[in-house]
Design a protein that fits this description.
Layout (H helix, E strand, L loop, with lengths): L13 E5 L3 E6 L2 E7 L11 E2 L7 H4 L5 E12 L4 E8 L6 E5 L2 E4 L5 H5 L4 E8 L3
Antiparallel strand pairs: 1-9, 2-3, 4-5, 5-6, 5-9, 6-7, 7-8
Length: about 130
């Protein structure tokens, strides 16, 4: 199987990465259902280096193409039924919060990576690091 390499001409200030979490299939009648993809995709919470993937010469030679994660939406459940939660980072205090329906709780430093980087991560929100 061929390996696909990400290429992007110019990186934005805010970058949203959506992970493919649902797979549909067809049968001879058209729609055959689907399945949830629960594969763990590991990603850095800080320091995502986009330099190897940028094509624009002015940006490729830049020393500052590092992104930090500030939000994660999660999907739990299946194709037909599920529940969404989110994590967001306060830019002033650098504290992560877990949003689940009407409740909000802090994410402890000791469980941060394990909680935030999970097989439920669906959309990842990154901000270009500023000098």
């Amino acid at each position: 199987q061929a390996t696909k390499t990400l290429e992007i001409y110019r990186v934005p200030r805010i970058m949203i990465i959506s992970l493919k979490r649902f797979k549909t299939s067809r049968n001879k009648y058209g729609f055959g259902g689907g399945q949830k993809i629960d594969t763990l995709v590991e990603f850095p919470l800080t320091g995502l280096d986009m330099r190897p993937y940028v094509l624009m010469p002015e940006q490729k030679n830049s020393a500052n193409l590092f992104y930090d994660c500030f939000g994660i939406s999660n999907h739990f459940g299946s194709v037909g039924f599920g529940h969404y939660t989110a994590y967001a980072k306060n830019p002033i205090t650098d504290q992560w919060y877990n949003f689940d329906d009407s409740s909000v709780s802090t994410v402890t430093q000791s469980s941060r990576y394990h909680n935030l980087v999970s097989n439920a991560a669906y959309n990842l929100f990154f901000r270009l690091r500023s000098d």
